[in-house]
Amino acid sequence: MAGPGFVRTLEKRDGSALRLEQRGAGGVGCVVWDAALVLAKFLESRAAALRRRAVLELGAGPGAVGIMAATLGADVTVTDLEELQDLLNVNIEKNKHLVTGSVQAKVLKWGEDVKEFLPAPDYILMADCIYYEESLEPLLKTLKDLSGPDTCIICCYEQRTMGKNPEIERKYLELLQVDFELEKVPLEKHDEEYRSEDIHILNIRRKNMAGISHCEIFDHVI
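Predicted structure:
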C-alpha cells in the first residue's frame, strides 16, 4: 500500500504527465488501481470523442480517469464520497495546468438523489467500482438515474479470482443486463502498453432508447 503523499505518475502521449497523489490510509478509494490506468490510457486513444463533452466519473478515488478526460478537452465532474473530496481536489490542483476542458469534484453517494448531476452526461466513467456486493444495487440505481438515451457508460474492471469476487462480478453483470446493453472492448483496442488479459473494458448503454449513443461515436474515433 502506498505511503502518505505517494505520487503516481501517468505519462501522456504528448510527453506531459499526470501526477496523482495517493494515500496510504483511508481504504480502497485512496489508491490509483491498475484498471484506472488502463481506462485513462484507453480514453487518450479516443481523445477526439471527448472534446467538449459532459463526462461524469463514479467512484473516482484519486481521480486518474476523470482528470485524464479533462486534459483531453472534456468537461468533467469527478465524484466519490465526502472523505475522498480532499484527495480529489489535491489532484485537480496538481494537474490543472494540463486541463483543456474543465474538472470539478462533487460528492455522490450511490443510490441517492442525482438531480444536481442532470441533465444526463454524454459519458459516465467507472474504474474498479465492483467491490462490495451490498453496493451493486445502489450503483445500478445511480447508473439508471444518471443515464439518458445517448449516454455511453465506459466501465473498466480487473477480474479477480479470490474469495467472493467472481460471484460479485457475475451478479453485477447479470443485474446490469436487465436495463443495459453491454459490449466488451477487444483487448487489441486497449492502449498497447497499458493493457492486461484480466482487465476488461465494457461499453454500456440503456436498452430500448432511441438515438445514437456516444458509445457508437466513441468506438469509431481514431
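Summary: The longest strand covers residues 199-206.
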